[in-house]
Amino acid sequence: MQAKIAALQACLADRTLYCGGTFSVSPDELVLYYGKNDDEHSHRINFSRASEEQLELLSQTCQPATFGVNQQDVLDESYRKAGKMDTTDFATRFSAESVGLVDVIRKQLLQDSNQDKGIRLEMYKLNVYGKDSFFKAHQDTPRGQNMFGSLVIVFPTNHDGGALVLRHGGKEWTFDSSGAISAASGPCVGYVAFYSDVEHEVTLVKSGYRVTITYNLYFEDESKAMVSVDPAPTSYEITMKAALSDLLSDPGVLPEGGYLGFGLRHQYPVNSETDIQNLVDCLKGSDAVIASICDQLALPYSLKVFYRSPGWESSMSTTNVLFNEVVDLRNWIEVEDVVKEMLNCYDGQVVKFVGEGGVPLGESMYSDSDSDSDSEEKYIDVLEVVDMNSVQEIETCYAAYGNEASVGHIYGHICLMVKVEAIKKSENHVVARHNCGSVHA
Predict the structure, then answer these.
(1) Domain around 418
(2) Distance CA 271, CA 412 (A)
(3) Which of 206, 240, 268, 296 lies at a CB distance of 3.0 to 4.6 Å from 160, suitable for a disulfide?
(4) Phi–psi pair at 348, nearest 5 degrees
(5) Do 151 and 300 sit in the same domain of this protein?
(6) Is the pLDDT of residue 270 over 50?
(7) Domain boundary at 172, 195, 224, which?
């Protein structure tokens, strides 16, 4: 069983997190018009033959670039040194939609999991990185629940350095726009699209000017989405589906039924007011793949918030609980047993982690008498496939009360929970699980 779990985890780890390259365009599509509101004259530059003087004027027209910290724009040239221009101050003949980049993003970045969703591009900023410019490692701030990533267009200007380094989950990739554009045989732009929670940085520009336009990427409203065309499954999708089916066909996996637990590997805009079920349509990367494969296998799944009890509560030290929503404890006072209070006030379940054959892994200190709820599904067996401590923590504070009053903290993690039916045995010793095939015991 562990080998099958490892195979499934390996599939998820191979998921594409970015796409990039060059895209051929006509010289006319490399024209940019720009100017400030208080300027009497606007300026025009064609990046297919831009001079050093023209690029310097463009750079001088820009304002110092800021970056977001705690919902505020901050100017700190020790962290980011570059110029920026708002969309009100420039216009370009280049259209990412017209040249077909939306289809490229759908096929190369979203691949099979979100192929039927529309994509909306929102032009965000123009940036100029001159000599000695850079942007240290950071993550983009999502500007809406349905924002899933960013697209950066790099115009064909001579520059040395300024590569984009991407990092996620301990892996690193580098997109060298200067080298890619130099190797192209005709007029082109460089492009790179990536998920919004992928950490990225712009390395030091040693010479020349690196000019980019950044777009925010959104999943389009269903009413405006493209018509679904049922694309052929990719090799990744086929491998992933086979790995999950193979795991579920193992008679040692949740023989009495229960849930497979997948901690989400991407970050999403979540707070105490968020209806996490609405995030299902905004899942990205490997998170979206799991949901897509479950749909294909007719496996019920939902998003839940997973909490581990605080370690300082000795009587609850091994208790893990799941809820259908983010628990809001801000107005609670004198909370002595936070897990018990959460279970009594919210629709929650106590998690019993199990291994092969449904054997419990450890023992929960929580008992029926600890809860006032009469729910028949208070306890559930869970096989943890992907660490349920997801990459994103949701912190909740409350007024704790023990020997003395203090501020308590508990951290939630969003997980995708897949419901698995119990195995049914027949007289010829064939075991079967609904929608998951059969194997010989």
Answers:
(1) 233-440
(2) 11
(3) 206
(4) -120, 170
(5) no
(6) yes
(7) 224
pLDDT above 90 for 308: no
pLDDT attached to residue 96? 94
Verify that 101 and 150 share a domain, yes or no. Answer: yes
With cut-offs at 50, 70 and 90, classify the pLDDT of residue 409: confident
- Cα angle 123, 125, 128 (rounded to 5 degrees) comes to 135
pLDDT for the residue numbered 73: 82
Q: Are residues 174 and 294 in the same domain?
A: no
Q: How far is the C-alpha of 290 from the C-alpha of 300, rounded, in Å?
A: 12
Q: Is the Cβ–Cβ distance between 178 and 162 less than 8 Å?
A: yes
Q: For residue 392, which of 412, 418, 416, 410 has the smallest C-alpha distance?
A: 412
CB 29 within 8 A of CB 94: yes
Candidate from 297-301, 347-351, 398-402 with smallest mean pLDDT: 398-402
Q: Identify whether 275 is part of a domain.
A: yes
Strongest mean pLDDT among 169-183, 198-212, 402-416: 198-212
> For residues 162 and 80, what is the distance between their CA atoms, to the nearest angstrom?
12
Q: Residue length, the chain? A: 441
* 138 and 30 belong to one structural domain: yes
Structure tokens at 234: 């990719």
Partners of 215 in the β-ladder: 123, 151
Residue type, position 178, single letter: S
Report if residue 1 sits inside a domain.
no
Distance CA 392, CA 413 (A): 6
The CB density around residue 10, as the number of other CB atoms within 10 Å, is 11
Q: Write down which residue in 193, 224, 255 finishes a domain.
A: 224
Bridge partners (DSSP) of residue 151 are 193, 215
